[in-house]
Amino acid sequence: MFFTLEDPNAKIKGSRDPLGAQPIWTAFGRHVVTNLTTQSNSARGFTILLLGRYLADRAIEDGRISRDLALDAFLRFEQIGAYVRHVAHDVGGDIRGIERVRSKAEEHSGLVPIRADSEGLILGDQKVNGLWGLFSVPARVSCLIPDGAVGLTSETTEFIEREYLPILQPIIERLSRLVAENGQFDTGAPDAMFSALSQVLSETFTDEEQRFYGEYLRDGLHVKKARTGSQQTFRELLVHNTRLDEWTDREEILALRDEARSVDAELAIRLDRIGRIEAVLAPSMSLFDFMLTRNRRELDELAEELAERWGDSVPNIDAEKNQDLLDDVGSIWSVAVGGCFDRVQRGLSGGSYRQGLSALLEWHKTVMNSRGGASWVQVGEDGKLDVRYRGAEQELPSGDDLPELWRNGYFIDSLKAITRQLGDTA
């Protein structure tokens, strides 16, 4: 199997993800989108990341800060970039920490604090939940930055100095000082620094930016061990066969698979496997969520309820064809989880819902045991469900919704977003 990075958003937080589905869809998604994560879906977010590291490096070289203060310098520039994008371009949800950015801009009448402490931070934990924590790994995998907390690749440095430095040169001293030291940034009046950064962080991209970000981020042409040109081919299929401003769904994946067969057989296989794994994961995840709302119910009762709502079987699951998926599921988790997965899919596809429910509970128990945690739900000695972690009240998807049920992203929507922002049409 091919792995390049784990999506920070797909890491297990505490005991979330009760079926361990995230590592599974992450692994399958990596075969079609090699470098992006669910959170790294802003091209301008990468601009701020790269410029922040460049300015931190410059401050170190100029003796303004020590190497161990590079993160503080980066956080300050991330704040500056967020205020510029909010005030100059009103991009709203594309900014991490937008609520604090809005409130601070209003509270301080445009003269906002730029600080590496609680007074300046735009997120509760800006290091973890901001660009440093969420964009650094995909930037590193894309070969835009090296390992470590400081530095850029030579290609990235050359790009910044060629594309952005001529615009920033008249205000670079002021900007460097603000990045190196706590201070204030004026967003409420005509200001040369604000104007220069507004130009650099424009919502439109220059030809050179489209080339650079397209090559490194959108098409992943420099990702090590990736199949050369596969992501570029996939992106071209997305452009010509989908709406880039809409979420990916089952119908779209199958259409892309069919289109890929004539241009990239391996990509077609990977898309087919995504369609088949999601046909099991999506109803399994919905069913487990439903079980958490059915405390003190017997499995036979739930099986009858499923049969009434879902009919004779869950569509799109071919348990025999899916045998090739079991080794992957087993290698991601364990042979035991692979066996549970198989029993669940056979139960759901054959209408043996009690079998599917029982196997689903075993799947959950096996995953939780591997984490050293306790099951959220189990069958008690009285034969009834004993729910230890009650879920939010919700209904099962209807039988009409089952054929198109889709819950996981496989990083495709991030690739769509980057492609759309770069203004690409081919």
Describe the structure.
With 426 residues, the protein is mainly alpha-helical. Helices cover 55% and strands 3% of the residues. The strands form 2 sheets. Strands 1-2 form a two-stranded antiparallel ribbon. The chain has a two-stranded antiparallel ribbon with strand order 3-4. The model is unreliable at 6-15 (pLDDT under 50).
Q: What are the segments in which pLDDT stays under 50 over at least 5 consecutive residues?
A: 6-15
Q: In total, how many domains does the architecture comprise?
A: 2
The main sheet comes to: 2 strands, antiparallel
Give the strand order, joined by hyphens, for the main sheet. Answer: 1-2
Topology readout:
Elements: H1 21-29, H2 43-61, H3 70-89, H4 98-107, E1 111-114, H5 126-129, H6 131-141, H7 154-163, H8 165-168, H9 172-180, E2 183-186, H10 192-200, H11 207-218, H12 230-241, H13 250-260, H14 265-291, H15 299-310, H16 323-332, H17 335-350, H18 353-370, E3 377-379, E4 385-387, H19 412-421
Antiparallel strand pairs: 1-2, 3-4
Helix pairs in contact: 1-14, 2-3, 2-6, 2-9, 3-4, 12-13, 13-14, 15-18, 16-17, 17-18
